[in-house]
Amino acid sequence: MRLDKFLKVSRLIKRRTVAKDVSDQGRVWINEREAKASSTVKVGDQLKVRFGQKSITVLVERIVETTKKDEAALMYTVLLEESHKTE
Question: pTM of this prediction?
Answer without folding.
Answer: 0.88
